Amino acid sequence: MLKTQGIILRTVKYGESSLILDIYTRDKGLQSFIIGGVRSKKAKTKTGLLQLMSLVDLVSYYRDNKDMHRIKEVNPTHIYSAIPFEIAKSSVGVFLIEFIQKTLKEQESNVQLFDFISECYLFLDKTEQSVRNFHLVFLLKYAAFLGIQPESNFSKENKYFDMNESTFVTEIPVIHHCLNEEESECLNRLISCDLSETHQVKISKELRKTLLNELIEYFQLHLDTKLVINAHLILEQVLDYKN
Q: Mean per-residue pLDDT for 162-191?
């Protein structure tokens, strides 16, 4: 038996009443699970508990050599009070889940990363401040767990961020992709920002949109993968409206 906490990254219907779940767990990293009977009228565990972003306590039959494990019992670790009902928070939450699901491949335990992700969702649910910049700061802190954290060396001389070298430089290299001076200065503010202070960073909606697209490209560049992120288009529209 494996008893652990998890956050649901993906759900797929299987058969008449089952679900297959990709869950990032605190003790075993990213794993796939199947749970039966949850889509039937008499199900003890309702599918409402097993939505994207849900934080859960689960008990499963687990074997290291299996690609999928059967869930015996699952209960909520936390029931969101704001994320499902506030469009800005739900849009940010869905974007982050899609981004994590498409970049996180770890099948080993990383307790610090799990705690970071779960604490971010708890904060997102509870905060009464604006979340317009939350996703940008999350991505920068998440990058550190993947080993691709941008260097924090911005200065009057080092005023351009070199996307290829992950550092601020004095001149824009011909063969590298660099952010301009305004984008670099804003990126530096976000790098040093705590998640609880993201609402204090003043960014125009145009610059916020640009930085989000640049950060997606940054992850693509350093993870050597093509990231097709769909939720950020909805996120941009929602945050533009909220701004």
A: 93
What fold, for 2-78? OB fold (Dihydrolipoamide Acetyltransferase, E2P) (2.40.50)
Helix, strand or coil for residue 215?
helix
What pLDDT does residue 235 have? 81
- Residue count of the chain, please give it: 243
How far apart (Å, rounded) are the C-alpha atoms in residues 95 and 230? Answer: 8
Q: What are the pLDDT digits (tens) for 143-158?
A: 999 999 999 999 999 9
Classify domain 87-242 at the CATH topology level: de novo design (two linked rop proteins) (1.20.1440)
- Name the residue ranges covered by the structural domains of the chain: 2-78, 87-242
Phi, psi at residue 217, to the nearest 5°? -65, -35
Contact assessment for residue 125 and residue 82, using Cβ atoms and an 8 Å cutoff: yes
Whether the full predicted model's pTM is greater than 0.85, yes or no, is yes
